[in-house]
UniProtKB/TrEMBL annotation:
The lineage of its organism: Eukaryota, Viridiplantae, Streptophyta, Embryophyta, Tracheophyta. SUPFAM superfamilies: NTF2-like. The gene is LOC106778885. It comes from the Eukaryota. InterPro entries: NTF2-like_dom_sf (IPR032710), Pathogen-related_defense (IPR053218). This is LOW QUALITY PROTEIN: pathogen-related protein-like.
Length: 245
């Protein structure tokens, strides 16, 4: 069976067939066509090519791609897999192997200290695959990222970011709302002497994301969820056709 080819991406310059030809992908080579369009339509900053802000934005998009889509840590080109540490909101840092044991995917990004019965969405009950499916279903066009401000350059890069997307699919038993959901935060990326990422620290409120995803009406059963999702998708398709007329 021939492996799927890698589509080149202008915002992730290392995502190329000649570089990633033998990469082991979790879900096959990723395509960013839809989220790139969302990014270009909704961004508030357009950074000059070669500027520090543009370089940081490219670095973070590359890092995100590898964290979510590559199976083998040793194939990560943006990080040093032996030194890499991740931390959310001041928690103790975890290595890539500890991240995998925690569940991987979106789970480390949604860590919470809330008691289990008070969690509207429990990341620890999910797997990397189930959480990936949940969020990519809720955001079929993706969850775009832009860098708003860079406060310091390498080796310790401190920046402010914005994520946004439209809830056009169901999430955790809730109906799609079509609303734009935004998430703002700060991050610190530390690079080594080889410009590899060795430490990532994020500071943001996961409830800003989950709150928007849980506003939709609650489904009574899976059949209703499927029906309403199909109807909502049909409405979006009709609206898109009208816009093109």
């Amino acid at each position: 069976m021939t492996a799927a080819s890698v589509a080149e991406d202008k915002y992730r310059p290392l995502l190329r067939q000649d570089i990633e030809e033998n990469t082991k992908w979790r879900y096959g080579p990723p395509s960013y066509e839809l989220v790139n369009k969302l990014f270009e339509e909704g961004r508030t900053k357009v950074w000059a090519p070669g500027s520090l802000e543009e370089q940081v934005q490219t670095m973070v998009k590359q890092w995100e791609m590898e964290m979510f889509h590559k199976l083998d840590f040793q194939e990560n080109r943006s990080v040093d897999p032996e030194k890499y540490i991740f931390s959310l909101n001041g928690r103790k840092g975890i290595s890539l192997e500890e991240k995998r044991k925690l569940g991987g995917g979106y789970i480390p990004l949604l860590q919470t200290s809330l008691p289990e019965k008070l969690r509207p969405y429990n990341p620890y009950a999910e797997t990397a695959d189930s959480s990936h499916k949940a969020f990519t279903t809720a955001f079929p066009r993706g969850f775009a990222l832009e860098i708003l401000h860079v406060y310091s350059g390498p080796p310790e890069i401190v920046y402010k970011f914005r994520h946004w997307g439209y809830m056009e699919g169901p999430f955790n038993g809730r109906a799609p709302t079509g609303d734009k959901i935004e998430l703002y935060g700060m991050a610190i990326f530390t690079l080594d002497e080889n410009s590899k990422i060795v430490k990532v620290e994020f500071f943001y409120d996961p409830a800003e994301l989950l709150g928007g995803l849980l506003k939709g009406a609650e489904f009574e059963n899976s059949a209703e969820m499927l029906l309403r999702a199909v109807l909502y998708s049909g409405t979006l398709a009709r609206e898109e056709r009208v816009q093109k007329l």
